[in-house]
Amino acid sequence: MAVDMPGHGLKARRLAASTRRPHVPSDFSSEKSPVADVDLDRAATVLAEQARRAVANQSPRSLTAWAALR
Questions:
Q1: 12 Cβ neighbours under 8 A, 6+ residues apart
Q2: How far is CA 15 from the centre of its chain?
Q3: Among candidate residues 35, 37, 16, 36, the one with its CA nearest the CA of residue 27
Q4: Percent of the residues in the chain that have a pLDDT greater than 90, as a whole number
Q5: Residues 54, 1: contact at Cβ < 8 Å?
Q6: Is the same domain home to 33 and 45?
Q7: Which domain, by its residues, includes 63?
Q8: Considering the domain boundaries, does residue 46 fall inside one?
Q9: How many domains in the chain?
Q10: Which of 7, 47, 50, 52 fits 35 for a cystine, CB–CB 3.0-4.6 Å?
């Protein structure tokens, strides 16, 4: 199972400074990180929700294999 964690994967946001031209290195130090609001609690909640959804959408055979790994 692969999950999209906040700040990573398909929903990732980048610093505007990384694609702005001309490139100004000091812009990186003044721009707020797009993942500044992501903490361990939020990341854990997202992971748990995605895991529950993935398990709910699996066949009984997959669920048995998943349970055996626990």
A1: 34
A2: 16
A3: 16
A4: 7
A5: yes
A6: no
A7: 39-70
A8: yes
A9: 2
A10: 7
CB 63 within 8 A of CB 55: yes
Q: What is the pLDDT of residues 27-41, one digit of tens each?
A: 988 899 888 888 999
Q: What angle do CA 10, 6, 12 make, to 5 degrees?
A: 35
* 56 assigned to some structural domain: yes
DSSP codes joined into one string, 22-50: S--THHHHHSPPTTTT--HHHHHHHHHHH
Q: Are residues 46 and 64 in the same domain?
A: yes
The number of beta carbons lying within 10 Å of the beta carbon of residue 65 is: 11
For the question of whether the overall pTM of this predicted structure is more than 0.85, the answer is: no
Q: 44 and 32 share a domain?
A: no
